Batch of 2 targets.
Target 1
Amino acid sequence: MLYKRFSIQILLLATFLLVGVQSFAQPNVGEGKQLFKDNCAQCHARNMKSDLTGPALGGMEERWADYPREDLYTWVRNSQKMIADGHPYALELWAKWKPTVMNQFPNLTDDQIESIILYVNDEYNKVDEVVVNGGTAGGATGSEPTNWSFYYVIVGVLALLALILGRLIILLNHQADQKEGTSLGEPKSVLSQVFSPSVIAFIIFILVLLFGHTVVNNAIDLGRQKGYQPQQPIKFSHATHAGEQQIDCQYCHDGARRSKHSVIPATNTCMNCHAAIKVGSTYGTEELTKIYASAGWNPNTGQYFASNVSEDDKNKAYKKWFKDEYVKANADATEKRINSAVDKQLANIQEFMGRPIEWTKIHNLPDHVYFNHAQHVSVGKVECQTCHGPVETMEVLEQHAPLSMGWCVNCHRETEVKFADNPYYNEDFYKAYHTEIKNGSRTAVTVEEIGGLECQKCHY
Ligand code: HEC
Ligand code: HEC
Ligand code: HEC
Ligand code: HEC
Ligand code: HEC
Ligand code: HEC
């Protein structure tokens, strides 16, 4: 029986070795392909040669060659930050592709990004080969199986080793038993060895382990966007509006109190103030005129354009506005400088002309989750900042909470419902709790206790 325990220990050791090998795996094309498919393919063409929503990635290593390798990692994790920090090549890219914003991938590790680069190079270099081969697999997929077969070989060798060891142990046991005269005939056959309960239990154990490993990895990589901070089409600052100017959150996000969604304010809300505040202290006319272009408002006259005014005439009006204000602020500017500044500003407002401002949505719960602002803000009396962080200090807004299920559930476990002075809880349904609080057998009710952990409350 000692042998048996020994063999199980060997098997366990082998398993941890295997899992270990997997987690320390080098960057490889197979992993890169999967990562690319899951994260990048919606914007970057798979042939790596043509532009799509984003540029063709083929040859990117050369384009980044003048900078440290880390810059490329930083770009993939948070390109907008790099642009904001003024990285020369990032600025070049942005100048060419704005306002299209690349997603952020803060969770990708260096190795994972290297895997993607391997895959990109592989695809980029092999396409011609495939054409020559008339589309047969050939060298095209060659490198992938090599990578996977590495694991298969290890698994195979280990399985064989386990089988041989197990066999040896059974034979030895049998011999020992025979010596003591306790043997019951033949030793176990190979087949019954393979299908013995302990081996089956072991295989199930491995499967559970691998399954868990994959699920956890996928859950981590799900693209939760904590820290997501895209560049917005207008340099709108919460620090200026909610901080310095102390404008109430709900002045702009008036949906929060009474509906499911907080909603982003329409251009009209901006116009309430910016019909008067026309030139900003930071960007002058550059940013605020985008609001006017969207609203169809003429800052020279302080009136909305009539519906029959042509795009050309609107542009003339904005041009005059930019020029007058620029000359006011830069009395000694040359004609050439004035013209180039005016042309640049005019070009920047074209995408806003007569169209609603396309703010990039930051928070995004999956469709199967039900979340209601009014429930939390009006009924639960939870502060905006508890979930959104110190918004009034953010120049550029970022996602503060992970928006994971664990985040919602933990808060529901810990947060006490404001029971006492809230008419919402006076329904008969909660009578028992009210009575318990009154007679002192209970001090508080958590969200969990009113059903805040029930699946169907949060899931459609
Ligand atoms: C939502 C679309 C989108 C997704 C998804 C996306 N990108 Fe991009 N990517 C862009 C755009 C657009 C640019 C051009 C620069 C810009 O506008 O920010 C870009 C630029 C790049 C560049 C610079 C290319 C060059 O020529 O130097 C790299 C590298 C890059 N992306 C890698 C990735 C990787 C890796 C992924 C997946 C993990 C990915 N991108 C996912 C849109 C996207
Ligand atoms: C003057 C109007 C205004 C005020 C006041 C204001 N916001 Fe905003 N808010 C906006 C605009 C415009 C956007 C979209 C642009 C952006 O993300 O910066 C936005 C975006 C947001 C977002 C992200 C929405 C998304 O896309 O997921 C959150 C969260 C938010 N605001 C919270 C707050 C909070 C909390 C306060 C008060 C501390 C506040 N806001 C005050 C105008 C305002
Ligand atoms: C309640 C009044 C109010 C509302 C509503 C308001 N703003 Fe402002 N905004 C201000 C004030 C005050 C300033 C500071 C002006 C300054 O710095 O000279 C400002 C500054 C700005 C600036 C910076 C201008 C610069 O060059 O410094 C931008 C951009 C801006 N607002 C955009 C918006 C947008 C977009 C909206 C609508 C979503 C909006 N504002 C709604 C009052 C408001
Ligand atoms: C209990 C946490 C919580 C509180 C409190 C909260 N929010 Fe949110 N907020 C969220 C979540 C979660 C989302 C994402 C919703 C989605 O994707 O459907 C969100 C999204 C938003 C958005 C994007 C537009 C939308 O509705 O999807 C804005 C704007 C916003 N919140 C503003 C506010 C403001 C202003 C307050 C305070 C009056 C506030 N929030 C209070 C959790 C909260
Ligand atoms: C900061 C704490 C906090 C976070 C984070 C939070 N909630 Fe809540 N939630 C509350 C409170 C407090 C209430 C109680 C309000 C009430 O009585 O309806 C509540 C109530 C609810 C309810 C109604 C429960 C019922 O029994 O009527 C739902 C549904 C809900 N939350 C969904 C969510 C979802 C989905 C998320 C995550 C995206 C989330 N909540 C995140 C604090 C939170
Ligand atoms: C308080 C709100 C809340 C409750 C209660 C809740 N969920 Fe969720 N659940 C969420 C949110 C938010 C997400 C989205 C997480 C994300 O995108 O990472 C989610 C995601 C999921 C997913 C998808 C997982 C994934 O990775 O996308 C499943 C499955 C799920 N929940 C099952 C359940 C079950 C079963 C229950 C009941 C035992 C439950 N949930 C209760 C908020 C909740």
Note: Strands lie at 297-298, 303-304.
Target 2
Amino acid sequence: MKLLMSLSLLMLSIFLFASPLPEAPSGFANKTNGMTDDATHAADQAKFEETEAISDGLGPLYNAQSCRECHQNPVSGGSSQISELRVGHRGPDGKFVNPDIPIARGTEIIKGRTLVNDRAICPNNAFPASEIQERVPDSEKIRTFRVSLNLLGDGFVEAVPDQTFVDLAREQCQKNHKEICGQVLYVPVLEAPGQTAVGRFGWKDQHASLLSFSADAYLNEMGITSRLQPDEVTNLCNTVSEPNDKPGPDGLSDIDHFARFIRATEAPARDAQLAQTTNARHGAELFDKVGCDICHVQTFTTAPAGTRVNGGAYTLAPALGGKQFHPYGDFLLHNVGTGDGIVVAMLEHYGKRMYQTTWKNFSISEFNSTGNKVRTPPLWGVRLHSHLMHDGASVTLLDAILRHHGEAEHVTKKFERLKPSEKDALLEFLRSL
Ligand code: HEC
Ligand code: HEC
């Protein structure tokens, strides 16, 4: 009996080993990954590309009029060169403090966020005397930029179980003698009040859910309030009632269309020609050999179809469940010596409900420990990014690599010791991603 059981276990493992999970589809053809049909995907994409006006609720403070303005390269949902401004300062105890940004000649102070909006809707014809443009006070000594991120394929990232990241962080730390220890951060899921999940989106892992991120972006990038982010940043020269984003005839609001659009995108595809060269293949081996793959993890697997994620608020469709994909990132927070000192602002990202709800697994001290940490960004599609690293300040791949210190010091040293031809091969591999 025992023998029979171990035999069948052996056969099962051979079977599992021999049949790799299906690959997540990839490409830049504006096609759906199968989660929706192409017509639905095109309609959702049109929402993502829509230019919003003041009558739609745009502003009062904002950065751009459409999601597509910052997420467009090489197709809608990709990244772009556009960066945003974030500031703050340190308090007497050395802890990070959000900025106070005076507007309207100092009669109102914008608080609770680190983002400084680049645009405002007034002064305009209706409010000629309203001066609400945000400008950075000299007292806010911490200043940084954060460059736009790619969204293509993010539906697969959202579908990775929390436990995968928890296990990865633990193994990484054990295997690397505590030199490289990614941090997992439990963040509020806005559509499941009280629930948290492992953050994986944004340079600071500030969200786990694409619906939560869409509501955050709609408010903070475009000034458009929704059921998940119902409060305007300022009510000066605000004319449209809240929430600005109301459900359409199909019951879906814009944020639902944005999230569904992102979830249904195909993953970024590699440069198939470059990927096949001997040089790039050799570079892929060197990437693992020097230890880039400790953080830039090649392959992840999504939870099975039907799994409920995001605090139970979202059920994985068959097209997203049980898929393998290759992001080349661990989505964990690391200190690689590039940190800007900024801690995620609660009010900005999670709204007032942050303070009205008790969140499971939520830890403010965990958040406070992330000031100088940045998420390992996935390198899929990195060949299409002209501005690299969170601040967009590196414009070559080599410069980006050489900026890795802190936890990555050891690996960077190993990279520096490679022969010129080997460095070239590794860079060729990156250019194929
Ligand atoms: C003004 C430029 C701009 C606009 C407009 C904009 N974004 Fe972004 N987006 C960014 C930047 C910058 C980041 C990185 C933010 C950070 O982590 O600080 C980002 C990150 C994201 C992410 C996280 C991606 C990841 O893989 O980590 C999502 C999702 C997202 N945006 C969705 C949207 C949606 C939906 C809209 C429209 C409602 C939108 N964005 C509008 C600039 C923009
Ligand atoms: C300790 C974890 C870690 C290791 C090891 C590591 N990286 Fe990174 N990598 C990061 C983090 C974190 C960032 C983001 C830093 C920032 O934005 O300030 C990053 C950013 C990058 C970027 C920029 C990506 C973008 O979209 O802007 C490239 C390229 C990159 N790494 C390549 C490499 C290569 C090549 C190696 C090996 C020589 C390597 N990394 C080793 C964690 C790591």
Note: The radius of gyration is 22 Å.
